Amino acid sequence: MPGSIDAAGAILTIDLAAVRRNYRSLLARLGGVACAAVVKADAYGLGATRVAPVLEAEGARAFFVVHLDEAAALLPLLRADSRVHVLNGLPPGAEAECAALGAVPVLNSIEQVTAWGGLARKLDRALPAVLQVDSGMSRLGLPPADALRLAAEPALLAGIEVGLVMSHLACADEPLHAANAMQRRNFLALRAKLPAAPASFANSAGIFLGRDYHFDLARPGAALYGLNTTSRQPAPMSPVVHLAAKVVQVREVPAGTGVGYGQIYHASGPTRIATIALGYADGWHRGGAAEGAAFYRGTRLPFAGRVSMDSITLDVTALPPGTLLAGETVDLIDGSHTADEVARAFGTIGYEVLTSLGRRFHRRYLDQ
Ligand SMILES: *Cc1c(COP(=O)(O)O)cnc(C)c1O
What we know:
Oligomer: single chain
Distance between the termini: 23 Å
Order of helices and strands: EHEEHHEHEHEHEHEHEHEEEEEEEEEHHE
Strand content: 15-25%
Shape: elongated
Bound molecules: pyridoxal-5'-phosphate
């Protein structure tokens, strides 16, 4: 992590109190159903080692990551009764490492079941696991035929303690999409054939589909981090991220002056240009320049020309001269200009904006 706030080019502030509020608000919506925390990809770029303990303090006991390495980083920070589940399951050869760590693999194939069960019998102890069935997304999980094979050959599961049966929704962010009800029916049918265990189905958007989708344990990620996974306005979650970048230099240019790579921008009149210390190497998509803007106390400052690797040029003519000086900051993401909105300018989703946030920012965590 970069050093002091004075030396940094940009400051990323992560509001852990807002993460807590978001968890509580999901819990309230779940009305008694347990709520896990998905903290994969470093808690969507926000810092899993900071986020997971905070959610554990709010009562979360189930955490989901994608890789075994992510589980290894978290387990020492969590309570003995918290479980870290590995969504990609077991890469061949990693079974012993997973068991030694005490991580819980999400078993997605007969091969993974066989390898995990084999290790359990070799170690002569039961090993915990989640069974994931593919209810219609065709990405991860036991295809229906393989789930039925497990039902027909229960010996395959000998030594495996199935703590959860889960599946994942493909279209939960479109409440009227026919795939939601279809996947739910498939999940219910497959679950009925497998060993009795609590069921987990809903991601953030799935929680907003209502009770029928909640089952026993919800698995939100995005909503915890303030993203709006519904089409509702105002957004149902509290914003978590604030990104500000420092002004490196300010200059006045006469009409007609070209700015930045390719000089695709030319000043239409006398213009003040501020160069800020953030660019595509910090996760700010080069393709989003046309609609890009930063904000200074509410004033919109449009990007002038292309996004560079380490900097962006802004047209700050709208501000009175002398208001924005080198070392001062402008806002790129805040409560009124959210990651979801930035994503629209980039032609992507808020998830990608958060997980792309760069490694060079000075990070501040608030928790009050
Ligand atoms: C990423 C992921 C989640 C969390 O999804 P959000 O949309 O961020 O809430 C839940 N379950 C699985 C299997 C995932 O891969």
